[in-house]
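Recap from last week: sequence in, structure out.
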Amino acid sequence: MSAEKKVFIYDTTLRDGAQAEGVTFSAVSKIHVAKMLDAFGVDYIEGGYAASNPKDMAFFKDIKKENLQHAKIAAFGSTRRAGAKVEEDRGTRALLEADTEVCTIFGKSWLLHVTEVLKTTPEENLAMIEDTCRFLKENGREVIYDAEHFFDGYRDNPEYAFQTLEAATKGGADILVLCDTNGGRLPHEIFEVTKLVRETFGVAVGIHTHNDSEMAVANAMESVRAGAVQVQGTINGFGERCGNCNLVSAVANLILKTDKTCLADEANLEGLKQLSKFVNEKASLRDNPRAAFVGESAFAHKAGMHVDGVRKVSQSFEHVPPDAVGNARRILISELSGASNVMEKLLEMGMDNIDRKSPEVREILQTLEKMEKEGYVYETADASFKMLIKKVLKEHRSFFELEGFRVIVEKRSKDAPCLSEATLKLNVDGETAFTVGEGDGPVDALNMALRRALKKFYPSISDVHLADYRVSILDPEEATAAKTRVVVESSDGESSWATVGVSENIIEASWEALVDGVEYKLFLNEER
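Predicted structure tokens:
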């Protein structure tokens, strides 16, 4: 691998990412994320702020027990305090106590911060930077110097901003990382300043961008174009305020769209979506369906013309192959759909003997239009649409018939929790199944009763559970008489599918979605 082509990926999800509103990692989750990042092939993992809290220090101790294959662990900290001796500074000592191969320290580049935040002199700030870098180097650490607010500092006083980099260089810093800490600079500014720094100093240059102007990834890419050899950021881009450079997008862009490489093994890029989902799960965040490269909508096609084009030539409407980043193409169904969308679904279902100009396709489109006028939406309920196709083609069979159900919600006292109970009577091939189910709410109780009634006849139903439940009010002006749309996501532990129901009664709409979900699972079992 050519040294000129290598860009080092520095992940700060566990430190900068953990500063995002609503994000927290348990001690165990931090270890799991670090191991996943190492397996993916990033070069540096910033584990936390050494002087910040016991959990971060515990991470540095615990990660030593893991056999990481590639990544270096970095401890984060700041320059020494103003007026303090570096060897006696508590924060600097904590960096050494973290006992990591790499120490990353930030220092002030902007005179505004020097005089108004640190309340010290420009000369003392330069000494703080040089002293801390030198002390850590003398103690055998690889030193990464993060020039905080560098681009704002350069805009305010270019000469002083460069003096801070010179101080870090004199102290022995291994790399100078230029930080757009406020996230306010534009790509052309980033390029010009990075290029100038690279030409001025004989030290490697890196980039750390924030996303307050929605420019973090673009700014990082421009910095690399100008010669930066390290990109700092977080998985999925979360971080302080609007977040950091999203390494998911940065890595994909670097590998797929430039002559650069940035992972230990480029084949690992196929695990990008899995990594994104894993980190979101550990951070207790929902996946963003519209996330570039890895979102469920990233390769979803809805307009008939797009579907027709992508079926003929994939790159006509896809900027990269979905499987290159571990994603997959999805064809959506809605009132905008044409025959191409329907044909794609038929092919997914193995029905390749139907012509797109056939009466069946026309009838499916007409039925779709009619159902959407009634409030059904199938682009997020793919399983229900496949069930609809089977009904239109007369290939649907009912696995059971409803004879009736009753749902009771009871609150026995002011302080007692609500109790939900559902009684259900089904006919399965001439045999009556009568069951009772209890749950956290009426829909949960009804779902429990349905599964209990069917598992004697269809044992695989025991594996099915509700993964998500969403409700939309379709006619708010009708108040309590409005139609309700319910979308249920079901899972059997291996795959998941979504179904939809619509009614003026939320329980009936839920029942319809539940039935579609169960029948879809049974149809899948028959096809296997």
